[in-house]
Amino acid sequence: MFKRIDKLLIDLPKPDHPDANAAAAVQELLGGRFGEMSTLNNYMYQSFNFRQKHKLRPFYELVASITAEEFGHVELVSNTINLMIEGTTFPGDPDITPMQDAKDKRNTYHFISTAQTSYPMDSMGASWRGDYVVNSGNLIFDLLHNYFLEIGARTHKMRVYQMTDHPVAREMIGYLLVRGGVHIIAYAKALEIATGVDLTKMLPVPNLSNRQFDYARKFEDQGVHRKLYTWSDMDYRTISQIWKGEHPTEGGPLEVVKGTPEGAPIPDLEELPEEFAPGISRDDFLEIAKRLKRNAGL
């Protein structure tokens, strides 16, 4: 089972301008074949269906702990998209066409169906697909697939980073480049233990250090690239049998951290009257507050 914490992995800056077209590109990092929905569901089902956990526990725990982090990645990308769209339209009488700017955006789904928020789709609006999940049941196959999946995700993040200079997108991508690098190395080390083949000698793929990206460099300076979290207070400790030694590309000792990152506040999205969202008027809110107090016995 999972424990949820009401925080984001990192603090996202409050944007001073919207960029809905850039948000459409960022959707690829959420619902594309190599997006966070894919990493989450691949690892989740592999962990659910893992065979012989008692014999291969460090490998199972590695996949299981990374699964929990991927939930946070999905949440982070989703909030990034939300913040990038906010401010595209304006409230007003329906006859003045308050959402007129939305018709010229690349992904009008954001405005017609989701009230200017993220959705599990790619950059072209195609829904995320369950058949992106690979769960072969063969440990080496699945670890190798995960290694490939993380490299594909890294490639796409680098490309989207170069498509937009929006500060919210770059903050998120910079962080996920670093954390995705952790997962690439973790799966490479797991494969080395399982097969004897050192895949870390191939890294980085693409052949570009995270330190070339301003928004990633600061997270590496904080040592984020050397930490692997258990995402549990008590469990998943045997990942230390895999995540150990020196960082293969940047140097410095690898560290297993019990629990989760400290986190940051989740943005509180303002109402959008032109979208009828959340559709609660001031009078409705006051009445709801009264009912909540009555139910709480106040």
Order of helices and strands, N to C? HHHHHHHHEEH
**Main sheet?**
2 strands, parallel
- Report the β-strand fraction as a percent range: under 5%
**Distance between termini?**
34 Å
* Computed structural class: mainly alpha
State the low-pLDDT regions, or none.
none
Mean pLDDT figure: 97
Helix content: 40-55%
Strand tally, please? 2
Q: Report the radius of gyration as a whole number of Å.
A: 21 Å
Strand order of the largest sheet: 1-2
Global geometry = globular
In DSSP terms (H or I, runs of 4 or more residues), the helix count works out at: 9
Question: Care to give the gist of this entry?
Answer:
The protein has 298 residues and is mainly α.
Descriptive account of the structure:
This protein has a two-stranded parallel ribbon. It is mostly helical. It is globular, with a radius of gyration of 21 Å. The protein is built from nine helices and two strands; from the N terminus they run ααααααααββα. 44% of the residues lie in helices and 2% in strands. The two termini are 34 Å apart. α3 packs antiparallel against α6, α4 packs antiparallel against α7 and α7 packs across α8.
